[in-house]
Amino acid sequence: MSHVQPRVPLLEMQGIRKEFPGTLANDDVSLAILPGEIHALLGENGAGKSTLVKMIYGVLQPDAGEMRWQGSPEHVASPREARHLGIGMVFQHFSLFEALSAAENIALSLDDAPEASTIVERASRVSQEYGLPLDPLAMVGDLSVGERQRIEIVRCLLQEPSLLVLDEPTSVLTPQEAERLFETLEKLRADGRSILYISHRLEEVQRMCDRATVLRQGRVVGACDPREETAASLASMMVGKDLKPVERESVHDRGEVLFEIRHLNRPAETPFAVALRDISLQVNAGDIIGIAGVAGNGQSEFFEAVSGEVLQSEPDMVRLCGTDAGALGIGHRRALGAAFVPEERLGHGAVPSLSLSQNLLLSRHASDHAEFLGTAGWVQRARLMAKSRAVIEALDVRCGGPDPAAGTLSGGNLQKFIIGRELDRQPRVLLVNQPTWGVDAGAAAHIRQALIELARNGSAVVLISQDLDELFEVCDAMAVMHDGELSEPIPREQATLETIGLLMGGASMGSAA
Amino acid sequence: MEIAENILLTIATASTPLLIAALGELVVERSGVLNLGVEGMMVMGAVCGFVLTATTGSPWLGLIGAVFAAALFSLLFGFLTLSIATNQVASGLSLTLLGLGLSGLIGEKFVGIAGQKLPSLYIPGLSDIPLIGRLVFGQDPIFYISLALVVGVMWFLFRTRAGLTLRAIGDNHESAHALGIGVIRARYLAVLFGGACAGLAGAHLSLVYTPQWVENMTSGRGWIALALVVFASWRPWRVLAGAYLFGGVTIGQLHAQALGVGIPSQLLSALPYLATIAVLVIISRNRRLTLLNTPASLGRPFVPNR
Amino acid sequence: MQLALVRRQYPSRVLSVFTPFIAFGLTLLAGSIMFAAQGLDPLVTLYTYFVEPLIETWSLHELAIKAAPLILIGVGLSVCFLSNNWNIGAEGQFVVGAITGSALPVLWPDFANFATLPLMLLFGVLGGCAYACIPALLKTRFNTNEILTSLMLVYVAQLLLDWLVRGPWRNPEGFNFPETRIFNDAAILPELFSEYGRANWGIVFALVAAIGVWLMLRKTLKGFEVQVVGASPRAGRFAGFSSSRMVFFAFGLSGALAGLAGIAEVAGASGQLRPVISPGYGFTAIIVAFLGRLNPLGIVAAGLVLALTYLGGEAAQIALGLSDKVVRVFQGMLLFFVLATDTLIHYQVRVTGGTTAGDSRGDR
Question: Do the two domains A11-239 and A257-512 of this chain adopt the same fold?
């Protein structure tokens, strides 16, 4: 290692072990963070990064191992103790309260319980100092994800932490917002604070971080200076093997329009929902069109409307396979040849307590009525089981037992099953929402390849994703959803990270291009 | 004049138990817990208050005993839903069924015994002022406690840090846990407070409203209190308004029965229940508003630390 | 000391079978303590309570009479609870079923032929079903909490019955007693083996309903729909199942079965309407449903157990002078223990000496 430092580490974790029923999340993990460095914790989904930082912050307790703070052993029994030591944490899925104001959210994490006016004043000072604008009186429920993240960071900084832990902070930001975050982090480093930066995005890590610790399947597999590594070497350290890149020939046959949205409008139904405004989109057979955007800009509402979970006011707002489908329910839309994969696996795409074969029936009972159901709706279990086995084999789903409950599968394997369940029908139209979110790299590559193959075999595929790398890897064109509106699709050859990023941030088509 | 004063007094008496029980439940629900055991805790308060009064001769001891007994009883619910994460709806029902059964057994020997009424306030001069004298200066002590509770709960929820913490837990218990807030502990305290309030409300029934013990004497008031919390959109001052509205309906129908207005007495007796349904329908109709007001983690079990 | 729950990777199959027995055992234990506190010998009392009623044939018939409504209602409630519809107004639906079914023999006492009984049963079913559809309608149309509305309607139904038997339906030759005329013979539910005891067709209805609903839940798409909508409404929507139709289905079915139980009770055991026709069957059936783990076949067993608590209560009152109030305490404890032990299926319970993260120090 080039960075052999004589300094005492700010935080040192040694031999940390944490087991959950069925998984060993951390096994003999050691890690040292020096004062004033940005230290990356790298690893793909499910590698145990979040578990480790939750132990640092006292939310979880390790089963074995030692933690030293500025050289002396510490037992962090609660987040409050962690804060007392000087550890601040920005969670991946924020730990904010939607029904409370920004100032109230901040107050809750301050252990000295100052007056409301003091909080507002201190918060605005910090937010100015580090370029993190926020409105202390706004209800968090009304704010965008970027704004929420700023509240979390300001909330941490008010405690004057010497170590700031950020769990996947850029996964919810536009490239431009991420850029501003990096500036803030560099200011913090200049102040002498340490940062533990958790990510699976290699460019960010290479650009900002002084050192990196890589986790794979709960174990440390390497510690390095990321700037001396290549993206490929880091990736293979994370994944453990060289991943086959996704293959995609850009020249292909295009057929008729199979998927068409015409001036789709939908009012917001709940206080925190986004209204869809005049969305139009056409997708031909053979194409994959991506829909980029920061989460919470109408993607779920769009999915609900197009899938038929919610019906439209005009039948021709949604046309699937040449038929007006706006007034048809999701079962009828499936029968037309469409298939849908929602973002949330547990509780939307699958019922965790039900078996895989029952979950197969979940989306297939309407489209394959004759195959799986007898008279009076009698379920043909043997056929369901056989089909479920076929899906499991086709997508290499790893699961315990012949027909386990969906909730017992890992995220990646369940996602493969859910996608395989739809691909098995060879749908002519496929709408998928965040198919690789929280999925390990191997499964993600598998899923992306499967989407490309489906399209090239003559189906129209619409891929909603927050992951710009994924969209650039897979799609023929990309549209951007922002605040319930959808931009014109931009062909991949003309799209750049910058234009897409600007559109994600709300710039208009003309100014972004 | 006299009649009007009497009617207003009886309305206050009929409303007080609803108000107290609903305030207690409001705090419980604000913490994200749905305790459907209000009826059971209330009837336990009623029977314990009566039995203690009858055996010790002191309604004050009865009052205190009722509060403690119901709070203790609420711990059963707390254990089920908080310590071992059972379904809150089913656990609340079990508390109500158990409370109705136990109270019947405890009070069996006390049916038909004349009770002792908690003395009302009397300030010479002030209590004799026409029309408002007895209303303001001559009511039972629990009435004054109930009004203090409204102010106290409002102050606690919206002016104190503990209240902010409680609301935060009710909004999102996972976030609260991640910040290191003791979710389970705070909820236990809220459930205990709810139990104590239900006990006080029950004591009001058996020590003030009708000083005697009758099996099932709460006759659905615990459930109406639950409905009041929804009606009030989880706001204390609206609970006050709602409780007096229901008290008014109850007393109104009683007077109508007494006057013999030609409507079957059973229909009049059904009015408070029908009014509850009507009010619930009106208040819940706006789905958006209901969603906005309901504590977001209400009824969801929470298991810390995986 | 604290309890920590650790989620099992797979729910325990063994425990899901045995927890009802554990719960029953714990109830007996708690009951013994209660008896001992009243100065009774716990073993003798438990014997009188839970064994003696099972020894004689006539008393087994009584058991069937009490179990029939509990099973009928419990089976319907299992569909409600599985689909996450909290119908706790079965008592009211029972009463309304009894009223609508009795309309025929009360208002047209001369209409006595082979069609009388089937029509009564049909009216009972329809009455209970329609009454249960009120909270369903309010829930789907106005987003109103079904727990509170269905419960409020119990009080309304009881007052309606009270008004009828004291008012318009009072027996004209009944010396002003608050009861209707005695039903004609064609309106009486026949006994099964009348030389041995009073058990009537009610128990047969209950068993048929249990098996039918079990098949529906286990083998058909409708049953699958019930499970999916109950476990996660969003997945149900994704599957194309309408949640409001499910609300009506669950409430309608359980109301119909409660209504059938109501009219079968009146046409069987009592033969006329009185101000009070149920010892809380509608509420006890909630316990039956949970003790049977929401499985209709389990509910048959659970219904018999709860029926035994009623019979045993009567027996112990006569033989030992034990208060009849004990019955409801027993039932309440049983539900408490059923819920408590249910947790064991999904979690391991560990007693920890230390503290867990969030709870070590409150933020107050």
Answer: yes
